[in-house]
Amino acid sequence: MRNMACSLIEHKRIKTTVAKAKALRIFVEPIITKSKTDVMHSRRMAFRSLHNKHAVTELFREIAPKVADRPGGYTRIIKIGNRLGDNAEMCYIELVDFNELMLADTKPAAKKSRRSRRGGGAAKAETAAAATTATIEDAKVEEETTDAAAAEVVTEESTDDAPAKSEEE
């Protein structure tokens, strides 16, 4: 149990059988609870259970601040199927606050609008507003191109008129 607890503290996640994971949970959770108060007595009690100086320092330095506001339940067991050799049920046991993939899923989802029986006026209004904006922008672009074409025609007429006036004189 000591070696598995030290490995769990150092690596934050280990792969083992379900029976060992359940036993490890009972062994390691009281140690994590004691690590919330960083006093010499708690450190000595943790060292008495773990017998590993590096695991104790990591427990008090990294794990304790993250679980300080959690009232319990510091580990999670994720079952992954059976082992090929002896068909033992395997799982991952991990510290709850250290799995970045699970923490990313807890972000609040985008606010969903409620659907009404009238035909979804909010969605239609948004698409209509977008279509109107696109139509106005297209009209502005078309107007600018016609203004540029008219300016070209005016410059061509003025160059055509200039030699005609010189011939008349």
Describe the structure.
It is a single chain. By secondary structure, the chain is mainly alpha-helical. It has 2 domains: 2-105, Ribosomal protein L17 (50s Ribosomal Protein L17, Chain: A); 118-169. It has 6 helices and 3 strands. The chain has a 3-stranded antiparallel beta sheet. Strand 2 and strand 3 form a beta hairpin. Helix 1 (2-11) packs across helix 4 (53-66) and helix 3 crosses helix 4 (53-66). It is flat, with a radius of gyration of 36 Å. The N and C termini lie far apart (114 Å). The mean pLDDT is 80.
Overall body shape: flat
At the fourth level of CATH, the homologous superfamily of the largest domain is Ribosomal protein L17
Spatial gap, N to C terminus: 114 Å
Helix count, per DSSP? Answer: 6
In this structure, how is the largest beta sheet organized? 3 strands, antiparallel
Number of structural domains: 2
Mean pLDDT: 80
The number of E-state strands comes to 3
Numbering strands along the chain, what is their spatial order in the largest sheet? 1-3-2
User: What string, H for helix and E for strand, traces the elements in order?
Assistant: HEHHHEEHH
